[in-house]
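User: Hello, can you help with two protein structures?

Assistant: Certainly.
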Amino acid sequence: MSANNGAVQTMLYDANKKSVGVAYLLWFFLGSLGGHRFYAGKTGSAVALLATTILGSLLTVVGVGLFLLGIVVLWVLIDAFLIPGWIRSTNTLLAATLTNNNAAQ
């Protein structure tokens, strides 16, 4: 029975794990909209990035928007280096959660 639980745990992990490649695709195509952050489970900062992008775009007419969009560009560039760690942490947490659930049964 234990081997069966291990197989189920492995299948659940494979079905729910995050991919660094997908995160980078989202970063490349939807970076300023926070797509990669939503994918990595960083919803709060993803909403903040999205709001900053929208606000910066709307305020470009006034000139202040360019400053906000500059912050967005810097933020997204820094995220490129952080993505692998986020995905590794998310997958490690998923594995630990599945292991704890398996041990509780």
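That covers the first. Now for the second protein you mentioned:
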Amino acid sequence: MENNILPDPNAIFPVPNIKTVVYIKPTIKNKNIIVGDFTYFSDIDFESHVTHFYEFYNDKLIIGKFCQIAAGVEFIMNGANHQMDCVSTFPFYIFEKWNENAPSLEKLPFKGDTIIGNDVWIGQNSIILPGVKIGDGVMIGAQSVVGSNIEPYSIIAGNPAKLIRKRFDDELIEIMVKLKWWDLSVKEINKLIPILHNSNLEYVKEELKKIVK
């Protein structure tokens, strides 16, 4: 019998009797952190894991839907960058009683917004550096340091994180990029789950071809 009670993206604790897994979106207070529905964090107080996030930069952390973020993951924002075109990188200007005014933003390295796609799995204790763009469906190994853009449906790991392999063949990746299942309604996703979690990828490919024209 079909379950008519749909999952609630605004439930902070979506796993019964467990208070260490949270849907991130309903916990966010910072207007420059934008998180999609059903993305979860295997810890509490997600915002404390977004560091060097200073208003004068006005950079954003944008995370898609259905992402899986393990405990200990840190997002380092542009405020961590120091001026690099001079002989000392020490930021005298942020400390009291030093004779230096703050440099203009043009003199500070700025990598832009950090953007994480949909259905991305970020392994435990990984670090995401400023301005990184991570594609849909990426898997990131534990304790990785991600400092460059990552193509959709890649598996990466290491410090610095490097491509291990593509998750699927090019044809299936192209189908998944077009499918964008995370943008479907919850009811449609529920019906699609048997395909999304089928390990026979040739069968999956043929079934999804019927959906993606």
